[in-house]
Amino acid sequence: MFVExxxxxxxxxxxxxxxxxxxxxxxxxxxxxxxxxxSRSDKFEDQYEGTFSEPTYEEIxxxxxxxxxxxxxxxxxxxxxxxxxxxxxxxxxxxxWQIFTQRNEGLAIQxxxxxxxxxxxxxxxxxxxxxxxxxxxxxxxxxxFENPYFPFLFKRKSFQYEREIRVITDxxxxxxxxxxxxxxxIDIETLIDCIYIHPxxxxxxxxxxxxxxxxxxxxxxxxKSDLESDILI
Length: 233
Description:
Elements: E1 17-22, H1 24-33, E2 35-40, H2 54-64, H3 70-77, E3 81-88, H4 94-100, E4 107-112, H5 113-121, E5 129-132, E6 134-136, E7 154-156, E8 164-170, E9 181-185, H6 188-191, E10 194-197, H7 203-215, E11 221-224
Parallel strand pairs: 6-7, 10-11
Antiparallel strand pairs: 1-3, 1-4, 2-3, 2-9, 3-8, 4-10, 5-8
Protein name: DUF2971 domain-containing protein
């Protein structure tokens, strides 16, 4: 279930457009099992995921002198928190196509913040929180630690191009040992507004995706990316 957290910053606009870029195998897995994959936070490429900026770390070290195990708690949390990342953008992103898809055969799910929240509400097994990522200078700026989710909602300025919204779940209360990630049930029909096909893909690939969606019992709108549309000159 999706639970609002007043301390986590999030736009109130339910019509804000968000995207998930992925390859065909991950897309099929999503439709076939009707489950959203959430990656363990310490498995992301960025080694700073779930860690603190230098000013915050210095502050925590002082607290740890009086509270043994304080630092160990935060280190352990990186293995207990799972994340699903989404890209905020009114339009397609050429950079996201390049980074998250390969061999011209990827696709992108377009939805809205409101649809994502409604789709997550169908899950009663785990509690999810949604927040916007803040991009800061880790050498100078402070990351608050009053809320255990805050370390996972800050990234270095080098990643600003991601414009990320995150679905976050802490599996600690469930006594789970997570390997690479966790799949959670989600209302697929509510989640997906439209599917966009890689701009460099061939027509047969678009037809394949359309047929695949149909055979799995869905009727989502499937569009070819317009980043490779004909030049009007």
